[in-house]
Design a protein that fits this description.
Elements lengths: L5 E7 L4 E4 L5 E11 L2 E2 L5 E2 L2 E10 H10 L5 E14 L5 E14 L7 H4 L4 H5 L15
Parallel strand pairs: 6-8
Antiparallel strand pairs: 1-3, 1-7, 2-3, 3-6, 4-5, 7-8
Length: about 140
């Protein structure tokens, strides 16, 4: 018997990349940062904080959810499995990559506290009035 299971809680490092294949299947890629706190040994030696970066791949419904709701800085719980693969880059050099194929995802950032929502709007966007629906309210689904 064997087991390939990964559980991560971390923060999204950059805006997710979502693509659609020719058959309409969505696939999302994101980078998740997990950190271990630094500490001090009994002899006084400082061990610094350590951050690991994980390449996460999400398919179909999970990818569509990522496209709509996940932004840089959001905290996520990811459950999945490790997959390694290799490819030849543009110069013919063999490259290796390890990815987490997500089976489950939970968004841990409270609604309305997304890092992307808290970021200041670009200057040009601040001068433009927001689009409003027929009833005078923003056309936001939530």
């Amino acid at each position: 018997m064997s087991l390939n299971k990964v559980m991560l809680i971390g923060n999204v490092g950059k805006e997710p990349d979502v693509r659609y294949l020719d058959n309409g299947v969505a696939v999302a890629s994101l980078v998740l940062a997990t950190s271990e706190r630094g500490y001090r040994l009994q002899n006084g030696t400082e061990v610094p904080e350590r951050t690991e970066w994980h390449n996460v791949v999400l398919w179909r419904g999970l990818a569509e959810t990522v496209e709509k709701y996940v932004h840089k800085g959001d905290k996520l719980f990811i459950e999945g499995k490790i997959r390694s693969r290799s490819y030849d880059d543009q110069n013919g050099v063999k490259r290796y990559i390890t990815e987490i194929f997500a089976d489950n995802m939970e968004m841990l950032t409270p609604r309305g506290q997304s890092a992307a929502q808290n970021a200041p709007a670009p200057a040009a966007a601040q001068r433009v009035a927001p689009a409003q629906g027929q009833n005078g309210k923003d056309d936001m689904p939530f």
